[in-house]
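Case study 2.
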Amino acid sequence: MNRKIKIGLFLLITIWCLGFLVEFLTPLWDKLFYLIPYLKQNYSFVCHQDAHKLIKSGHYETLVCARCAGIYIGAFLAALANIFIAKKVTVKKEALFIGGAPMIFDSIATTFGLYPYFKTIAFLTGSLFGVVSFLYFYNAIIELLNEIRVKKH
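Prediction:
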C-alpha cells in the first residue's frame, strides 16, 4: 500500500512539474504550445509569476518563479528518493519550520532590499523547503491512512 502511495504522489508531482516547465517541452511536441495560456492561468493561483523572477533559457521560461520552481523540484526529488527508501523518514513540525526558515529569510531580505533577488538562492531555499514539505506531507498521509485502518478494524 505504501509503495502505491509513494508512486502515486511521485506521478502527481511529476505532472505538476511538467506543467510549469511546459515551454521547455514544446520543442519535443509543438502542440503543447496551446496549453501554455491555460497552465499559466492555473499556476497564477499559487505563484505571483513576476517576469524577472522566472527561470529563463533561450526563448523559454518557467510558468512559476524560481522560488516556487525550487519548492516543486525539491518535492519532486524527495518523492523520487522516497520511492527507493524503505525506511520511514520522520519529519516533525519543527523540521518544517527549520526547512522553511532560509526561504522565509531570503524572501523578507529581498523584499526589504537587504540584497537583490537571486534566482539561484530563491531556487535553492525553495528546494530545501520542498524536500522537507514533501516528507512532512507524506508522513501525514501515512499516519492518516493508518488511523483509518485502525478505526475500520
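The chain has a mean pLDDT of 94.
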